Amino acid sequence: MIRIAFLLVIFLVGRAEAQPSPNGGAPTLDAGRIVSVYSEALAFMAPRILEPIPVSQLTLWGLKGLAAIDTNVGLAVREGNLLITRRGQPLPEILLPTDEAPGTWASVAAQATAALYSVSPPLRRAGVQTIIQAFFDELFSHLDPYSRYVPPVEAAEDRAQRSGRAGIGVTLERRGRVIVIAGVIRDSPASIAGIQPGEVILSIDGQRATNQDPMTISSLLAGAPGTPVALTTRSRDGRVREHLMTRVMVPPETVFAERNADVLVLRVTSFSQTTASHIALSVQDAMAEPRPVSGIVLDLRDNRGGLLRQAVTAADTFLPDGIIVTTAGRDPEAAHIWRSAEGELARNVPLVVLVDGRTASAAEVLAAALSDRGRAVVVGSSTVGKGLVQTIDPMPDGGELFVTWSRLIAPLGWPIQGLGVLPQVCTSVGVDLLNRQIAALGDGVQPMMAALRMARASRVPVSPERELSVRAACPAAEGRAADLAVARRLIANPAAYAAALFAPFAGR
């Protein structure tokens, strides 16, 4: 009977947003839209969020968002009823259901919203989309920093960005009157066609490219996947060449390789669909040169993450068989042990990973795996500590719900969330302390030993006090020039490198 009453109320309030009611009374609300969005969201969230929270509590949290729009709104629960007031004046009480069915509680939320909508000018001015946003903002403020609702327009833009852009895989720059190819993405149509950085674009599909800006040329090169594009270029030696290519979805280049004397430096800006393969190919190329590199630096500074699977595959490039990362959550589908297989690249080549206070998420997974497994020395400062994984659910209104459903656990069992990755060599404590660290490592002593032991021994749940204590050993900071210099010093000093590398395993 209760559920029937709720549905009847929803039917009566109608579906017109901010429109006068048929009898000329107060405006009504698109309650059907609210019910469909909240029902889907609550049903998706309840079994997946990290801690079990009743649907009723999630709904009541969300309803508090109405007071964020209209500060004169009051909501309280008493003896199984929802009490609603505006400016101290009570509205009819709503009998709360005794079950935890998402649809029933979504109906309660719609009924309460509709009641207030008829008497609240701020709610009517805000409209249904802002009301839905406020519901989720308030709800998620009680959970974690990363769960969120994305409204329809923004969600559509995000989906397009995640899918990539169809083109030929080049970056451009203007030099005087001409547009020059600044970079070519590995394995892209341009790369396969043999186009090289430095070539001048003369025309695209017969349209002259001289005296154009890079944005215009980029738009001419872009198009629907599978469509042809004809490109005329002039190489550095003056040869004019014709290229007929087919546009494909090209993920942005995220791996930038540079050989610095005998050290390979790989700057990885994020983790897209091709990141792991481009890291592996760059390492293979460096090792196949007549004079192989004596060390590898993996620069993850300012890397905010990306695709977790790509970080796992990148770690597998350098590791023998063993655990890379574990994801743990209430939903069985959220729990997974990611492992590396036998056969690592550059097995005996020293590896240093650079991190800073903006290294996050998938980048932290890679750094933690290489450090915990004794394959790399991490240099820099404490990282962000973003160790939660979100799953996405499309909403009936075209929006998207990002819900945190698992934790990232490093190979030695400690959670990345909150702690971040603590470097074995800290560069954020000043030049004098840094030099003393390097000198101590040269003598076989690891100054970060106690802090590293504390970090690696941490287990869920980690208290805020412990997080602060661990991170205080190497405060988060932006990357600095000294990071790469330290990496080169470690690679050149096997004793210091070995002392730094050993620390995570001490006392196991």
Would you give an account of this structure?
The protein is α+β, with helices and mostly antiparallel strands and 508 residues long. The chain contains 17 helices and 23 strands. Strand 2 (81-86) and strand 3 form a beta hairpin.
Number of strands: 23
Report how far the terminal alpha carbons are from each other: 61 Å
Report mean pLDDT, rounded to a whole number: 91
In one word, what is the shape?
Answer: globular
Q: What's the CATH class label of the largest domain?
A: Alpha Beta
CATH level-two architecture of the largest domain? Alpha-Beta Complex
Global Rg:
28 Å
User: How many structural domains does the protein architecture include?
Assistant: 3
Number of helices: 17
Q: What percent of residues are in strands?
A: 15-25%
Query: What is the share of helical residues?
Result: 25-40%
User: Main sheet?
Assistant: 6 strands, antiparallel
CATH structural fold name of the largest domain: 2-enoyl-CoA Hydratase, Chain A, domain 1
Low-confidence stretches: 1-26
Q: CATH H level of the largest domain: which superfamily?
A: 2-enoyl-CoA Hydratase, Chain A, domain 1
What structural category do the secondary elements indicate? alpha+beta
Mind sketching the topology for me?
Layout: H1 2-13, H2 31-45, H3 55-63, H4 65-69, E1 73-78, E2 81-86, E3 89-90, E4 94-95, H5 102-117, H6 121-140, E5 148-150, H7 152-163, E6 165-167, E7 170-175, E8 178-184, H8 189-192, E9 200-204, E10 207-208, H9 214-221, E11 228-234, E12 240-246, E13 248-250, E14 255-260, E15 263-268, H10 275-288, E16 295-299, H11 308-318, E17 322-328, E18 336-340, E19 351-355, H12 362-372, E20 377-380, E21 388-394, E22 400-409, E23 425-426, H13 431-442, H14 449-457, H15 464-472, H16 481-492, H17 494-502
Parallel strand pairs: 15-16, 16-19, 19-20, 20-23
Antiparallel strand pairs: 1-2, 2-3, 2-4, 5-22, 6-13, 7-8, 8-9, 9-10, 9-11, 11-12, 14-15, 17-18, 17-22, 21-22
Helix pairs in contact: 1-5, 2-5, 3-5, 3-6, 10-11, 11-12, 13-17
